[in-house]
Write a structure and sequence with these properties.
156 residues; mainly alpha; Cytochrome Bc1 Complex, Chain D, domain 2; 7 helices; globular
Amino acid sequence: MTSTPITKKNHPMKIYRIQLGVFFLLAALLNFSCKPNSTDSELATTGSFILQESELPDYENDLDHQGLLNALGDRYDESIRTGEHIYNNVCFNCHGNSDQLGSIPTAFKFWEDTFNLGKDPYSIYQVLTRGYGSMPPQVHLTPVEKYDIINYLREC
């Protein structure tokens, strides 16, 4: 029986250090993006938006929010379908739903929790856009996609 000779490339300690490094990198990324808070009441008192208004892209400051909301009426069914699709593919992992909890125990539960900043569409839009507490800003979503998610959450 022959064994593979140990070299610098396959030394068990080197492989172990690489695996350990990857583990700590993933743990740090999860901690940064989905870090749970102490309590929801602390968030409500600190008002801790992650992004300030001055850090938002210019188009966010010039949006016609009422116009976007009015346009939802023209595409109501499409908006619900799109919002559900985005929620299931982006939001569900952390937040879950009433049948299955998400991966972050302290993540907001839309079906039972009380909104800290208001449950109107604009307030929810601000949380999605700027992030709040442990909720990271959803910078990859367009304004229409954010309102589609809000429309879906308010209707389900």
